[in-house]
Amino acid sequence: MAIYLDHAATTPVHPEVREAMLPYLDQYFGNPSSIHRYGREIRQAVDRARDQLARGLNADPSQIIFTSGGTEADNLALIGVALAQKERGRDHIITSAAEHHAVLDTCHYLERMGFRVTYLPVDATGQIQLDVLREAVSDRTALISIMYGNNEVGTLQPIRAIGELARERGILFHTDAVQAFGMEQLDVKELPVDLVTVSSHKINGPKGAGALYIGREVPLFPQMHGGQQERRRRAGTENVPGIVGFGKAAELAVANRKEHREQTMACRHAFLEELEASGIRYTVNGHPEHFLPHILNVSFPGVETEVMLMNMDLEGIACASGSACTSGTLEVSHVLKAMQLPEDVTRSAIRFSFGLGNTGEQAAEAARTAVQIARRLGQKGI
Amino acid sequence: MMVYLDNSATTRPDPEVIRVLSDVMENIYGNPSSLHGLGGKAERLVKQAREAVAKTLGVSPKGIVFTSGGTESNNAAIKGAAFQYQNRGRHLITTEVEHASVYEVCRQLQELGWKVTFLPVDVQGRVRPEDVEKALTSETVLVSVMHVNNEVGTVQPVQAIGSLLQAYPKVLFHVDAVQSFGKIPLRPKEWGIDLLSLSGHKFHGPKGVGCLYIREGLQLMPLLVGGGQEEGYRSGTQNVPGIAAFAKAALLAAEKGKQHAPRLYQWKMEMLQKLQSKLSGMMVNGDLSREGCAPHILSLAFPGLKSEVIVHALEEEGVFVSSKSACSSKGEKPSRVLKAMGLSDEEAVGAIRISMGLDTTQSDVEACTDALLRVIPQLQQVMKVHGS
Ligand SMILES: Cc1ncc(COP(=O)(O)O)c(C=O)c1O
Ligand SMILES: Cc1ncc(COP(=O)(O)O)c(C=O)c1O
């Protein structure tokens, strides 16, 4: 039996989500911008999904912009705000070295457009240091973008403290919550954040949908020009079935958050117990307390990442090296590099990520399999 | 009974397309970038989809980049070319009748310091290739001309423009073919097209998926970065079910279009004849010749009436048409396209668009004709009594 432990890369679509989408592929296929009834009914479906997202973040529906995914939402948040802020004489961006590529590459792009970018270092647990951030901030800082929870090692950043510092200095704050949404409670009224990225396919919704929460009075230059969709902030005919599915997925994720946390935490514990019992050499990468329960990054020193991955795959267990986007390239993860871990750790790291349908027994089985492979291949005599 | 004749706004997905989308969503949920078997399956599916789409266009699969739709493809093509080649010059040429997703991008670039020539069109809505050539300067990096206009259906001379641009190898040629694919022949490679935009939901495919054809070897500054998917041209986790369904729709449309398009043209002309013989005060916008128009779009204007009123009156009769392009149909302003063709405000605000799809039947068209024959004289009567 195959065991899928790569939920941080993407998740299966929840059956109820698929069910919710199907009518919008068939019977309700119209264009929400059309003024006739066909269009109006579809507009209402998009509005309902916007309400579902808004409720999940405790935002106002008008503050939700639907996009084609997390990458587009990150690009829009960073470029859209940076360009708007430049007009006000602010041309400096602060981010961290451990961000997802959707943020990092956008920052490189902004550098080419003349912005100055500070990439904050992270410590060995993957967290940024607040005093380093405090020093980096200046009157010209346009935006701070720090992810909520890391997609490779699960480390949570001190979001509240970062947000408070940003507020104090009158700087806008974006957080990529793609991995945290559905795991952590995200309340934009209570948390000092101005922009939040979420993505549908990471919470058992369909691929091809994402959203950006944008606070009131946050200046934003749209990046997709054309029709007047999304209050002129994102042109393009809405991906109605995708948006409807995303809305449903968000509703389910928020409603089931506690159970989901408990379930993934149980998987994590089961996995780690097996490793501990086996006596093999391993390290857990990330923060010992502040982590997303569904992401478990483990190194098996002596067994190269790709060799382990291949062997796990042969045994029917799907797991990952770094993030899915970089895993195709087999480079050493920029996140682990930024954490300055020893080379035998960075070169043998595997990400196991739990989600819908995983059980503690599956996690334990995956761990036993990893142990066998490690014994067979690298860590002989252990 | 519902008669849906607003296919230029969006189309009903083909049942086979829905099946593919739903099957893939259920069974192949891996991320194509993942190394494991499930990722591999998803990757192979995307590869097959790319090959299928390439085949329908007669291009190499390497040139197909999947996007989130026509709007993104247009943004990516125009901004991508403008930013990538700004050292060569900062001049663009387009027309006054482009879709907002081309027009507004050009205006945005204008604000950023690019020079943009918006070429005028004739009364049929057509740009003249000579005008394109005359507008070229040593600074020109891109010409963007749509294939079929979404409001009136006029076919632009993209083949002629493509061939005259062969003499200017540094000038790129982008074509928004969102309304033409599956309706009229389209050969980007033979026609000298460097960049071409398609959108799935306009040919019975899924919403939220499009593609951009990029001539092999052409570099573009990407619109979305981070992750490096689609060979770096377009980052973001690929919408695997959507892409598979898009490819299915492209294959079906390429096939069905060949048989169905001539019929659509015939029904359009029959409809027009009936309307013209029985209604007064009706204008036909655009070209009607077989070669000069897309077979599925008919634009009519009833000066003195308001398009919204006609649309709602037809809706009461179970017939769904549109006032103008869906993206702007909420705006009250008269259509920019019709104004560019020389219509007065009064004429332009009374325009409706009837647009057929590959699932339209003759009885749909007849029902629409009958509804217009009932509705228009009534509305004109009301206007006579209450108007002026
Ligand atoms: C933290 C984080 N940000 C952004 C993204 C990109 O989102 P999407 O895959 O929806 O483009 C991902 C996933 O790939 C992610 O894990
Ligand atoms: C000619 C033309 N170009 C571009 C688009 C935009 O495509 P999409 O709706 O996929 O964003 C449309 C449709 O709205 C169109 O008719």
UniProtKB/TrEMBL annotation, chain A:
It is an enzyme of class 2 (transferase). One of its GO terms (molecular function) is cysteine desulfurase activity. Its cofactor is pyridoxal 5'-phosphate. The keyword Transferase applies. It catalyses: (sulfur carrier)-H + L-cysteine = (sulfur carrier)-SH + L-alanine. Transmembrane segments: none annotated. Its EC number is 2.8.1.7. PROSITE patterns: AA_TRANSFER_CLASS_5. Keywords: Iron, Iron-sulfur, Metal-binding, Pyridoxal phosphate, Transferase. It comes from the Bacteria. Residues 3-362 form the Aminotransferase class V domain. Belongs to the class-V pyridoxal-phosphate-dependent aminotransferase family. NifS/IscS subfamily. This is cysteine desulfurase.
